[in-house]
Amino acid sequence: MPPADAAPTSPTDPVFVVGEALVDIVDDAEGHHEHPGGSPLNVAYGLARLGVPTTLRTRFGRDARGRSLREHLDRAGVALDPASLTSEPTSTALATVDAEGHAEYEFEIDWTTGEIEAPRDARVVHTGSIATALAPGADDVLRLFEHAAPGTLLTFDPNVRPGVTPDRAAVVARVDRLAGLAHVVKMSDEDAAWLHPGLSLEAVVAHYLDAGAALVAVTRGGDGCLVAAPGVLVSEPSLPVAVVDTIGAGDSFMSGAIFAILSQGLRARMLDRSLSEADVRRIAEVALRSARVTVSRAGANPPSVAELAG
Questions:
Q1: For residue 124, what is the domain's CATH number?
Q2: Total tally of structural domains belonging to the chain
Q3: pLDDT tens digit sequence for 274-298
Q4: Which value, in Å, is the radius of gyration of the alpha carbons in the chain?
């Protein structure tokens, strides 16, 4: 297994991503425009752009917006699970961006999936966001994690959306259930504050490590991130960047973290929860670089391998 500071290699472990795909309708100083969106879609797209073999199970229509999502995924090389297509309209999120580039969302979304089965060759399964909290599909996502094949690395980003899932107690219980099954738990500091009001970020990280996670990451916007593994706690600062908007930044952090785990040959260490401080720091650095590229341009536009290296 290569050391943590070895040069990245092209990942070959296939990843299966499950969750919502939608169209972000953005109103900002430049007017009204649309971008492909949805946290799981963004993670799948980010992974494929980094050369990771990625399949997405989602839900979108055969309408014009659905075709735009399909074309977007095709450009990155994301394989689409055929069960993703529906006759219903494609979901949307109205994103209002403030002067500092931060986005607020209003969703029109349906998440009805039926049984979800990971491809037999999938070595990583990722999920998160609305797909893990909105009925009826959230129950199918939970079953996917509960019945994952031995040796599958499970990654999870709750990316809470109180406007869509206002029952906080139910969401907290579902997050704890999924986090207890996951090897990697990633969230923003805003997620942490909503899920665990009054707790410090260090206490939130400890909560999920105690639940069984091998790696817990909390992003802190322009202040970088806090990343921990059993016996390891790393606070990594962000590098300066001119922010265009923050749409998709957390998703790029997530895809960058998964890429770092796979490209550094750390999947086995994740599964047996034996990451070193150098491993954790390397994952944090790559994930932050990935997010940094995304905030420097409009929309959820994650880096290529060349941009990540640069």
A1: 3.40.1190.20
A2: 1
A3: 999 999 999 999 999 999 998 888 7
A4: 18
